[in-house]
Amino acid sequence: MDKRKTIISIQHLSKRFGSAVTAVDQAHLDIDEGEFFALLGPSGCGKTTLLRMLAGFEVPTEGEIIIDGQPMAGVEPDKRPVNMVFQSYAVFPHMNVERNVGYGLRVTGVAADETRRRVAEALALVKMETFTDRMPNQLSGGQRQRVALARALVKRPKVLLLDEPLSALDAKLREAMQLELVRLQQSVGITFVIVTHDQDEALSMANRIAVMESGKVRQIAPPAELYEYPNSRFVADFIGKMNLFEGQVSGVSGNQIVIDAKGLGRIAVPYSGSAQGDVGIAVRPEKIRLDRNEPGSDRIRLRGRVTELAYYGDESAVFLEESTGISVNVNVPNEARSTTPAFAIGDELWLSWNPADTLVLTA
Hints:
- By secondary structure, the protein is an alpha+beta fold.
- The chain has 8 helices and 20 strands.
């Protein structure tokens, strides 16, 4: 299969505000043409600053941005082959939907007939073709977001930049719009770069995700790889839920590493890398099984007491505490139709998991 063309190349990019704040620190990554790429991280990690540098609203302190083969140094925002959808949508309140979407074409001198045709195409893409005469104050949040998307797409950019575009929507609409954005990206075939702090949003939408922390890109990977094989304690803890234990390498046995782990004792888990000294041991809550009877010796196991329960409908989160004070979170699917919880606070239970589901983290 042919390798995809690189549409964005970010090379050793940094942005400092004064001498005290480094918002982006030596970011280095490539984004492919037609890719849905997510910049993910906690508030203040530098992801929006990186997006604004791509758009031309911030000037890098050092490093280079190349879009579609052209260096962007000194190129004004309106001359770049990108368009941006802001968190607030920035829809003009005094213009109806049709005039909002066509604004960028009118100010650049596109003929009226061509403008009408492209506006109609863009509104059809976002399923807003019947709302042309509506004013923004007559639209819901989700509809205003669709107008903002149409206004960005009508100029046919090479890259669409989205800054937390779903954060103002309620949970159910946000979930529906995630699917809509994926459908839209696949139908227009252009590159989408989205900034979000929502892990579920990034995992469900993106082809690849860059996780950022304190201005640095910590890991870039497809969603499943990022979730199952995080490269550090930070990424493991930030992506989804994770139980972390501290341990120390005591030896190697064949293709397994032997670790003395607090709360778990001496365990052997599959590991192909090299590690020594202190390491982190991690396991996802859904990989852990709860039993009232002692599980087999082929599983990593410990005993704990239920301290908290949280019911989420399709699953329950069970929080347990081991005798040395270590807390463990277990996700239990609610498979049977019942209003009686399977476990109660105070229950003494066995927790166990397959050694192959254990992550060894050296960073």
